[in-house]
Write a structure and sequence with these properties.
- The complex is a heterodimer of chains A (287) and B (298).
- Chain A is α/β, with parallel strands linked by helices and 287 residues long.
- Chain A has one domain: 3-Layer(aba) Sandwich (Aldehyde Dehydrogenase, Chain A, domain 1).
- Chain A is built from ten helices and twelve strands.
- Chain A has a five-stranded parallel beta sheet, with helices on both faces. Chain A has a three-stranded antiparallel beta sheet with strand order 5-6-12. Chain A has a two-stranded antiparallel ribbon with strand order 1-2.
- The longest helix of chain A has 21 residues.
- Chain A starts with 12 loop residues before the first strand and ends with a strand.
- With 298 residues, chain B is of the alpha/beta class.
- Chain B has a single domain, classed as Aldolase class I (TIM Barrel).
- Chain B contains eleven helices and eight strands.
- In chain B, helix 8 links the parallel strand 5 and strand 6.
- In chain B, helix 1 crosses helix 9, helix 2 crosses helix 10 and helix 9 packs parallel to helix 10.
- The longest helix of chain B is centred in the C-terminal third of the chain and has 18 residues.
- In chain B, 47% of the residues are buried.
- The mean pLDDT of chain B is 95.
- The chains are: A alpha/beta (287), B alpha/beta (298).
- At the A-B interface, loops of A face loops of B.
């Protein structure tokens, strides 16, 4: 019988490329599927959210300005890092929520989804750009550009593949994001943050907050420096709140309802296009 | 009766830094916060001191001073605009009747390495153009080699050249090396006739820091207790966010008392601070976090 004490991980928030505790010092408990205490998670406050949004804003121009090729490399690197931690993700999913088999399927689907969007980074722009016929001596063309800073409320089902399916297309398109993890599966989000941290994603591109969505959705929806909100959380009250408050600075809002994130149909470049703005340029040409 | 400037007033460095660390933990909330933010905004010297200051740039800054926010009329204006002497006339024309002061740096800003004649002429030029506040720099080279009477005399001469204009004396604390030197330079400036003492030009790093400002505030307090004259304080450079500004206000209040919580006795030399204060004021009123996208540059 060994006397060794287990060294347990402190789950922290991931803001601006750093793992930090909540400035409020508040915590909440997360339970596994047998209702046993799984972990104490940071309960992010409004100020943590503000800091995360500031961090996301700070790096958005740099991230959006990188070559599509480079963003693709980095997303692929994320997939590599996840593959290395495959067993850990399976164990965590199994402990938190699902059967062994489903945990394996979900982890594999999550990794494959990253590869899918890594491939799209340098292709969607060509697909959705256009050269437009105009009745004047102009070369007229339209191209997609990133929306900016996106707030993401994660779904409560599909703790891993759901999360990846929301984050990947948003950052593939050159946006930065602040993720409000599912309340039930915050620990999976924490581990995903470690993967992001170790995979060449610049600090601040993805920020992960654990906590109560009820605390965080209202200040996210009213924040003037957030350009878009994406919610896949099944909570009509919060969705209403997002839609009502989005008008203040005309945020782009997308609500994904009841999507089965395990399916292959749940990945497509149209998810990237949900957070792109089309810019049209009129360039004079000689007559 | 002048003190002997060769005597050094010892400064407890650890004590100063610990005191400052306490001010940094202060949290001011709700109505008090709104009050403090508005007060801080009224204390801002909106500054542009670049070689690229075109008339258009200065005009834009003046409009920013006149109309800080497009909707809310309750938001106060800044205390002054601070520009180079050749932009004073333009600023005076635009700000006429608004109550916003026009400050001009002079005396071979930022180095102070001009001849005494040219430095005095520059002050007279700025005053003639309409500046009612002059920000001068001291000769750090003279101060650092111990020629305190040179520094004293130059300040006194420039004070005379200012006429009715207020004189702010920039110590450039980033070049003075020790807190004892900051204290000594403050004393020299005040006894030589400064209306304000100011930390920095903003061209040298470090610019204004809280410990340096605290040392200068103590100098002002001692001078007030000895002579009964209230000297103003202006930290300048490096103060970019509202939170830091509020920490400064707490420090001023608790070192010198509420009398100094007044734009006539305390100023911030800053450019980006004004927008952060505006954003925090609007945040306080609406409850929504703000974005710089919706605030004019200036």
């Amino acid at each position: 019988m060994s006397n060794r004490l287990n060294v347990l991980k402190t789950c922290k928030l991931y803001i601006g490329g750093k793992f930090s505790r909540s400035e409020s010092e508040h915590y909440f408990q997360a339970f596994d599927k047998k209702q046993k205490l799984l972990a104490n998670l940071c309960r992010a406050s409004r100020k943590d959210l503000r800091n995360a949004i500031q961090a996301a804003r700070k790096v958005q121009a740099d991230w959006g300005g990188r070559t599509a090729y480079n963003r693709g490399q980095i997303l692929y690197r994320m997939a590599e890092m996840m593959e290395g931690r495959r067993d850990q993700f399976i164990a965590e999913l199994e402990c938190a929520a699902v059967s062994r088999r489903r945990a394996e399927n979900e982890t594999d689907a999550a990794i494959d989804r990253l590869v899918h969007y890594a491939g799209w980074t340098d292709k969607y722009s060509a697909l959705f750009s256009s050269v437009n016929p105009v009745a004047s001596p102009h070369f007229n063309f339209s191209i997609p550009e990133p929306t900016g800073v996106v707030g993401i409320a994660a779904p409560d089902d599909y703790p891993l593949v759901g999360l990846i399916s929301l984050i990947a297309p948003v950052i593939a398109g050159g946006n930065t994001c602040v993720v409000l993890s599912s309340e039930k599966y915050g620990s999976v989000a924490c581990t995903l943050a470690e993967v992001i941290h170790s995979s060449d994603v610049p600090g601040g591109v993805v920020n992960v907050l654990t906590g109560f969505r009820a605390d965080l959705v209202p200040p996210l929806a009213t924040h003037m420096d957030v350009n878009a909100v994406l919610s896949a959380a099944d909570d009509p009250e919060q969705k209403k709140n997002i839609q009502e408050n989005a008008h203040i600075n005309v945020k782009r809002v997308h609500l994904y309802d009841g999507t089965d994130w395990m399916k292959d149909e749940s990945q497509s470049p149209y998810y990237i296009m949900d957070f792109q703005e089309i810019k049209t340029t009129w360039h004079p040409v000689g007559t | 009766m002048l003190p002997d400037f060769n005597q050094t007033v010892p400064i407890d460095q650890i004590g100063v830094e610990e005191r400052v660390a306490r001010f940094r933990t202060r949290s001011i909330k709700k109505e008090s916060k709104l009050f403090a933010l508005k007060l801080a905004l009224r204390m801002v010297d909106l500054t542009t001191l670049e070689g690229m200051d075109s008339p258009g740039k200065v005009r834009q800054l003046c409009y920013k001073a006149l109309y800080p926010h497009k909707i809310d009329p309750d938001i106060p204006r800044v205390a002054a605009i601070c520009v180079y002497p050749n932009r004073v006339r333009l600023a005076v024309e635009i700000l006429k009747g608004s109550g916003i002061h026009v400050a001009s740096v002079a005396t071979s800003f930022p180095s102070g390495m001009g001849t005494m004649e040219s430095r005095i002429d520059e002050v007279k030029y700025a005053v003639d153009e309409g500046a009612d506040e002059i920000d001068m720099v001291i000769s750090r080279w003279a101060f650092l080699k111990g020629d305190y009477s040179y520094v004293f005399d130059e300040i006194a001469m420039i004070k005379e050249a200012c006429g009715p204009a207020h004189l702010k004396v920039i110590l450039e604390t980033g070049e003075l090396e020790t807190y004892e030197n900051v204290r000594k330079a403050s004393d020299i400036a005040m006894y030589a006739g400064a209306d304000f003492i100011k930390t920095s030009t903003g061209k040298i790093s470090p610019a204004a820091t809280m410990p340096v400002t605290l040392v200068m505030l103590y100098a002002i307090r001692d001078y007030y207790l000895k002579t009964g004259n209230k000297i103003g304080m202006k930290p300048a450079g490096g103060i970019r966010d509202a939170k830091t500004a509020l920490h400064y206000l707490a420090m001023v209040k608790e070192t010198l008392g509420a009398d100094w919580l007044d734009p006539d006795l305390f100023r911030f030399g800053a450019s980006s601070l004004a927008n952060d204060l505006l954003m925090q004021i609007i945040k306080q009123k609406t409850g929504h976090y703000q974005s710089p996208d919706y605030f004019s540059i200036g």
